[in-house]
Design a protein that fits this description.
Layout (H helix, E strand, L loop, with lengths): L10 H12 L3 H9 L5 E2 H7 L4 H13 L3 E6 L2 E6 L9 H11 L6 H25 L3 H6 L8 H10 L7 E5 L7 H7 L2 E6 L2 H14 L4 E5 L11 E7 L8 H9 L2 E12 L6 H6 L8 H8 L7 E7 L2 E7 L14
Parallel strand pairs: 4-5, 4-7, 5-6, 7-8
Antiparallel strand pairs: 1-3, 2-3, 8-10, 9-10
């Protein structure tokens, strides 16, 4: 007599097995470490880990099937990033524990060197754009995010922070200096840093026309770790999406904020206007709100984020040690 064997369902076990499989390869663990605070395309990861594209694609597929990485499209390119899992979901504790352990790994020196090369390639492309397009800067910016579109919201957020008359400000990437007059009226001393001589010259001309005697323009890289420059308010207006490694940049810039000060960011919401790469020199097509929150948080400080959602733009402040608060405009991205 033939007996019917019952069909067994192994979906929950399969999910755990996928996580174990994904974490069972040293290269995949190092990929997860590299993606801790960054996003890379498959070609970049193949370059970083000195392996073939097809092999890297296979490893990324295994990580994706386990839910450890997620993808985002940037124009025609697909970038990979780490994915977090709710602890209450099946495998969530294992998932997050694996990432926590991975974060204690130190990447091999040659891998760190090749990551730096990828970042420098991105930065060079951005710097080349601004050196070529300085004369048409305002027209290019207006294509996607002109200052008049978000100035009032940023100023309202800035004024709400209540800096005193002796406070200082640092603007990173001031462009043609359009926001410097507003900062000069609100702070005793303003420093503006830009690594593009052409853009800094535009800012100098504006300061000269407006008679901004309390603004100091410096040709410098704000991400230079050797610099001791700090201010009560560090400002980035539509700059983050031009930076090679936004997450690392936020962590470095947070160190330039004096105790009790704020890091004020105006950024594009995530969008799919891939033409902005060519027309505006954008390395990234905006950001998710959760990304900014995650990157800006500093566990060494009693820090908080304040958000203002403005049409297609997002304003955020990273403050320490202010009380947590939220400011939202009714229109979301």
């Amino acid at each position: 007599m033939n007996m019917r064997v019952p069909q067994l369902r192994f979906e929950p076990a399969d999910e755990l097995a996928a996580l174990c499989k994904a974490g069972g390869d040293p290269l995949r663990l190092n990929v997860l470490r590299a993606l801790s605070n960054d996003s890379f395309g498959v070609l970049e990861l193949a370059q970083i880990f000195a392996t073939g594209q097809s092999g890297m694609s296979h490893h990324l597929k295994v990580l994706a099937q386990a839910g450890l990485v997620a993808t985002r499209r940037e124009g025609n390119a697909i970038f990979y990033r780490r994915a977090l899992a709710p602890a209450e979901r099946l495998g969530g504790l294992l998932h997050n524990a694996l990432l926590d352990e991975v974060d204690h790994l130190e990447l091999p020196t040659d891998v760190q060197t090749r990551i730096a090369v990828v970042h420098s390639q991105r930065a060079a492309a951005s710097q080349d754009f601004f050196s070529r397009m300085a004369e048409n800067f305002q027209a290019q910016q207006d294509l996607i995010a002109g200052l008049p579109q978000y100035r009032d919201s940023v100023l309202a957020l800035l004024d709400a922070l209540g800096f005193n008359a002796q406070a200082t400000a640092l603007e990173v990437g001031p462009g043609d200096g359009g926001f410097l007059p507003e900062l000069a009226r609100r702070f005793s001393q303003v420093t503006a840093l830009d690594n593009s001589p052409a853009m800094l010259e535009l800012a100098r001309l504006r300061c000269e026309r407006e008679g901004l005697g309390n603004v100091d323009l410096q040709l410098a890289d704000a991400l230079n770790e050797d610099s001791q420059l700090a201010a009560d308010c560090v400002v980035l207006n539509m700059v983050l999406h031009h930076l090679a490694a936004p997450a690392d940049a936020l962590k470095q810039l947070a160190q330039r904020v004096k105790p009790g000060g704020s890091l004020l960011i105006t950024e594009l919401c995530r969008h799919n206007q891939s033409w902005a790469r060519e027309a505006c020199g954008d390395l990234w097509l905006g950001f998710e709100q959760d990304d900014l929150a995650h990157w800006a948080m500093n566990p060494e400080k009693a820090s908080t984020l304040v958000y203002a959602m403005v049409s297609r733009f997002r304003c955020a402040t990273f403050s320490a040690p202010l009380v947590a608060r939220t400011h939202r405009q009714p229109k979301r991205c």
